[in-house]
Amino acid sequence: MFSSLAERLSKSLRNIINKGRLTEDNIKDTIREVRKALLEADVTLSVVKKFIINVKKKAIGHEINKSFTPGQEFIKIVRNELILSMGDQDNDLNLSTQPPAIILIIGLQGAGKTTTVAKIAKWIQNKYKKKILITSTDVYRAAAIKQLEILSSQININFYLSNINQKPINITKEAIQHAKLKFYDILLIDTAGRLHIDEKMMNEIQEIQNFSNPIETLLVVDSMMGQDAINMATNFNKYLSISGIILTKTDSDSRSGIALSMRYITGKSIKFIGTGEKITNLEIFHPERMADKILGMNKVISIIKDIEEKINKSDIQNLTKKLKQGHDFNLNDFLMQIKEMKKMGGLNYFIDKFSNNEILSNNLLGNDQNALNKIEAIIYSMTPKERNNPSIIKGSRKRRISLGSGTQIQDINKLLKNFDNIKKIMKKIKNNGISKIMRNIKNILPKHL
Ligand SMILES: Nc1nc2c(ncn2[C@@H]2O[C@H](COP(=O)(O)OP(=O)(O)OP(=O)(O)O)[C@@H](O)[C@H]2O)c(=O)[nH]1
């Protein structure tokens, strides 16, 4: 259904299911998967190499907790390493200074600076209820000042109007003066887009930074730039003291590896990510969430949420209880399961995710909603006796059931053939309990669930 790194790791470790420890030998293939996946996510090669060394150090000799599979243990190690590498805590803005706290926004042309200035202003206003002023020192792009003025008025934040005949440093001086006079808490300064190789422009921004002494100098980076962004950020950091990075356009198809490389190479924290064109599309950077995105686990998280929201827990608990008391799983129980599964959209979906697909490898009757309806209809056409013991269903009864349920005889055969497999899954649930299976999966999921 989806081939996430997490899934690939589990698969490549499936053959060592009963070994107690991770060893250099049994994780060889899995390490290769990690390397491949990180490179596919556009993580810089040197970063991949260092990352792999760290993961190996932590994995080799690692004892496998009895309630986890080696795949889950390994995913936990990789996930923790990703979080650690991208900063092990969430990043907020530093605003603790004598007002006005100045935030300088810099970056290449088109990176998303102007939009981001408005987004940050809105974010600060919502979170801290501060008095905020915005200004633009972009005198090179004709419409830049107007663009920010319009955005500011849309979000109800005061704008210090500059004009293209002024020097950027003079706009900065005047805006700071104005902010002091009018007791603003925060001054956000937008700057023109520039290339790090443009010495004149880099000197200009240096002068602005030296004069304004910002508490935050945030480099806005377009995440779609890929590897080039790392070079650019390193060079900007040589000219200026950068306090953090904002990755924009993370809603695009851009690969998430840039977040890992950026932090590894520049050593700077990613403070925010832009997740769309709207003013509200700005989020504090959560290393945990990005780690999940790189691992492809965000999909798993939504599956779990779905299950938790939609599944009727008391029915499942009743069934588990019944099974534990020695009750044999029958087609009536299966019918109840089908109803739950229908809410989640597809039987194989459930079986695939929660039984590791170890037992049931074939589709039952296809994996769509339709198949579930068919199974339901077949079971409804059976007598209570047949539901308790389907092995008594012979040729003539099959024909009657097929007529009654509007299905083909081969559908009934397939269902009966697979019933044994389903019973095996239920035995697994009986031994482990559905809650334990869920817990195992949850243990490798983030705390913010
Ligand atoms: N999808 C998406 N688009 C974004 C995001 N951030 C900015 N943009 C878009 O990127 C384009 C450029 O954004 P601007 O804010 O004008 O970029 P800039 O860095 O100020 O550009 P210059 O002033 O020319 O240097 C605009 O169309 C924005 O709407 C984001 O997080 N996601």
Automatic annotation (TrEMBL):
The record's GO CC annotations read: signal recognition particle, endoplasmic reticulum targeting
The residue ranges of the AAA+ ATPase domain are 99-277
Give the UniProt subcellular location, in the record's own words: Cytoplasm
Q: Is Cytoplasm among the key words of this record?
A: yes
Q: Name one GO biological process term.
A: SRP-dependent cotranslational protein targeting to membrane
Q: Which UniProt keywords apply?
A: Cytoplasm, GTP-binding, Hydrolase, Nucleotide-binding, Ribonucleoprotein, RNA-binding, Signal recognition particle
Any idea of its EC number? 3.6.5.4
Ranges where the SRP54-type proteins GTP-binding domain occurs: 100-296
Report domain Signal recognition particle SRP54 helical bundle positions. 1-86
| Main location (coarse class) | cytoplasm
Keyword Iron listed? The answer is: no
Gene Ontology molecular function: 7S RNA binding; GTP binding; GTPase activity
Give the reaction(s) catalysed: GTP + H2O = GDP + phosphate + H(+)
- Note the CDD domains from the entry: SRP_G (cd18539)
- HAMAP family linked: SRP54
Q: Which PANTHER family match?
A: SIGNAL RECOGNITION PARTICLE 54K PROTEIN SRP54 (PTHR11564), SIGNAL RECOGNITION PARTICLE SUBUNIT SRP54 (PTHR11564:SF5)
* Family label: Belongs to the GTP-binding SRP family. SRP54 subfamily.
Report the protein name in the record. Signal recognition particle subunit SRP54
Annotated source species = Toxoptera citricida
